């Protein structure tokens, strides 16, 4: 029943969000399957929801998917996956490239929020080992990056946090609409042995740029983050103070950052990294169609922010 608390294998209440789904069974190890999809369409009435093309093969416990293409609501997805259950624990090697994902629709479908609109591109390269989902995530390493373009966010809370006093007191500005216009967003995470750490995390609106740094421990689901806003109009009174994210995925907490550096185990993050990202973002916002994509390309080319905020 929905009201019954979930329990892990030890019989105690499960305080984690990520389920421990079993990935390996005797059926997989004994199966021999080869499937080729020339063009499979999933439809609702006359509306095509997704089309699939690719290969799937299982031999001696080794599952191979790909090259595999999927077109979901106009968003092309390419995937390659090898899950080898002939080992103990099983090993995973996966690559995913997805374009124009409607993350607003995903958030609505999962019941998170219906107040977000926008699309993003996603690229992931991950490898790990485990016979169920949690152990697999606890060993996973690789990288994940995403870039989004224009979108909308319901409400003005983000710009209220990152704004200055004159912007907030301007009634004409607030009467123009109840949504925040997103110009772009970008995130890149390095994953090592079950810990994900951002080396780029930035969101840009018409009036405010917000940069952050985030650590996620996939073993415990503990999160630590620092986010710093930067208004685009100068003011004698800047109300945007850094915020610190803590807690877990299930019970996150947000409060003013009372320290310049916070730690998660042996890893540390600080306000200097978001501040440096904002400086790097700089005039890209004025001359690039998608400055977040330009920032990611600049970062990939070797430009790294230092603690002083300079390249």
What's the short version?
The chain is built from nine helices and 15 strands. With 311 residues, the protein is an alpha+beta fold.
Question: How many β-strand runs?
Answer: 15
Helical run tally: 9
Which residue ranges are poorly predicted, with pLDDT under 50 across at least 5 consecutive positions?
1-12, 164-171, 306-311
How much helicity do the residues have?
Answer: 10-25%
Largest sheet: 13 strands, antiparallel
List the topology elements:
Elements: H1 26-30, E1 32-44, E2 47-59, E3 62-72, E4 75-84, E5 91-102, H2 103-109, E6 116-129, H3 133-139, E7 141-154, H4 157-162, H5 165-168, H6 171-174, E8 179-192, E9 195-205, E10 208-217, E11 222-231, E12 243-247, E13 252-256, E14 261-264, E15 267-270, H7 272-281, H8 284-287, H9 291-300
Antiparallel strand pairs: 1-2, 2-3, 3-4, 4-5, 5-6, 6-7, 7-8, 8-9, 9-10, 10-11, 11-12, 12-13, 14-15
């Amino acid at each position: 029943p929905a009201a019954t608390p979930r329990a892990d294998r030890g019989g105690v209440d499960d305080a984690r969000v990520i389920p421990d789904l079993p990935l390996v069974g005797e059926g997989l190890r004994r199966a021999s399957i080869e499937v080729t999809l020339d063009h499979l369409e999933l439809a609702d009435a006359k509306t095509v929801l997704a089309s699939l093309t690719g290969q799937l093969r299982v031999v001696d416990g080794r599952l191979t998917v790909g090259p595999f293409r999927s077109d979901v609501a106009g968003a092309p997805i390419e995937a390659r996956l090898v899950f080898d259950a002939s080992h103990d624990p099983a090993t995973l090697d996966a690559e995913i490239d997805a374009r124009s994902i409607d993350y607003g629709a995903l958030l609505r479908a999962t019941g998170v929020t219906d107040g977000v609109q926008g699309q993003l591109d996603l690229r992931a390269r991950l490898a790990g080992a485990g016979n169920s989902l949690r152990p697999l995530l606890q060993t996973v390493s690789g990288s994940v990056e995403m870039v989004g373009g224009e979108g909308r966010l319901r409400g003005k809370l983000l710009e209220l946090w990152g704004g200055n006093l004159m912007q907030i007191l301007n009634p004409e500005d607030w009467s123009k609409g109840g949504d925040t216009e997103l110009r772009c967003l970008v995130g890149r995470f390095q994953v090592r042995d079950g810990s994900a750490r951002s080396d780029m995390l930035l969101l840009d609106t018409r009036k405010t740029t917000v940069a952050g740094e985030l650590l996620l421990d996939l073993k415990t689901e503990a999160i630590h983050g620092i986010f710093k806003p930067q208004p685009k109009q100068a003011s004698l009174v800047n109300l945007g103070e850094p915020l610190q994210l803590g807690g877990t995925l299930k019970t996150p907490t947000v409060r003013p950052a009372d320290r310049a550096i916070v730690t998660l185990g042996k890893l540390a993050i600080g306000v200097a990294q978001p501040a440096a990202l904002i400086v790097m973002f700089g005039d890209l916002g004025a001359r690039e169609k998608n400055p977040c994509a330009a920032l990611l390309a600049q970062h990939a080319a070797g430009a790294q922010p230092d603690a002083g905020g300079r390249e």
